[in-house]
Design goal:
Number of strands: 9
Helix content: 40-55%
Strand content: 15-25%
Order of helices and strands: HHHHHEEHEHEHEEEHEHE
Largest sheet: 9 strands, mixed
Radius of gyration: 20 Å
């Protein structure tokens, strides 16, 4: 079968970096980007090897890049349909409304961590030890999930945060990787690490106004969006991975 090698390589790209990365590879191939640029376009483990297999299969089968790209787009569309449609829901912290049932931030966050099978990325501005989250992260690490947590630092926050370092809230999660945006590399005075999100397996994404503290996820009135499916979870993950790869985000431990 003429397309067999290309389809096998496409499946490897999708497995390594997600459907969105496969579609982007197709677009960049059509745009005529160099082999080196294509292989380094994503930092996910295994992506470069899988992308190289796509390019090698294209050449071995005598296909034009445009034809191969069309095949990749079709493959990605099929996988996206297989994985189900896009699901978007609102999440809230704070008092409930009995007439309008909503999903709580705490349950959404803990549910995402419980579903993680490969990777989980968390970002928060402030953090205090929240036992249910710590337990969920420990369990995730124990089953082999790669856990990366990006936090603000007291130095980075200036006078806006006080007390213990936010990273200390996760000190009991052995095996988790903690990251920060070094104040010395921030382009503008007063810039903060202010995002609050959780991205899991490039398939689910929680974006919220809530910091990962008990007050944030339970007591305050906070609002957010839970996205399952679509390209947003993968794109969010890829953006954080690129910030890590380029040194914008650096390890705390």
């Amino acid at each position: 079968m003429k397309w067999a090698r290309l389809l096998k390589a496409a499946a490897e790209v999708e497995t390594a970096a997600g459907t969105a990365a496969l579609s982007m590879l197709a677009e960049e191939m059509s745009a005529g980007r160099s082999r080196a640029a294509l292989l380094t376009a994503r930092s996910a483990p295994g992506y470069a090897e899988a992308a190289a297999a796509v390019l090698d299969a294209t050449a071995a089968d005598g296909l034009s890049r445009e034809a191969a790209a069309a095949c990749l787009h079709g493959f990605a569309a099929g996988r996206a349909e297989r994985d189900g449609g896009l699901e978007v829901s609102l999440v809230w912290s704070g008092p409930s409304s009995h007439r309008v049932p909503v999903r709580s931030t705490g349950r959404a966050l803990l549910g995402l961590i419980a579903e993680a099978g490969e990777e989980a990325i968390l970002m928060t501005y402030s953090a205090r030890r929240y036992p249910p989250l710590i337990e969920a992260l420990r369990a995730a690490v124990a089953r082999g999930v790669g856990v990366d947590i990006v936090v603000e630092t007291l130095q980075g926050a200036g006078s806006a945060l006080a007390g213990e370092e936010p990273a200390g809230a996760f000190a009991d999660v052995e095996g988790a990787r903690l990251w920060h945006w070094p104040p010395g590399s921030r382009g503008a005075p007063g810039a903060k690490t202010h995002a609050k999100l959780a991205a899991v397996d490039r398939r689910s994404l929680l974006i919220t106004s809530a910091n990962f503290t008990q007050a944030g996820v339970d007591r305050n009135i906070e609002a957010g969006t839970l996205v399952k499916g679509g390209t947003a979870p993968a794109r969010a993950t890829e953006h954080v991975r690129e910030l890590q790869r380029t040194g914008v985000l650096q390890r705390l431990w």
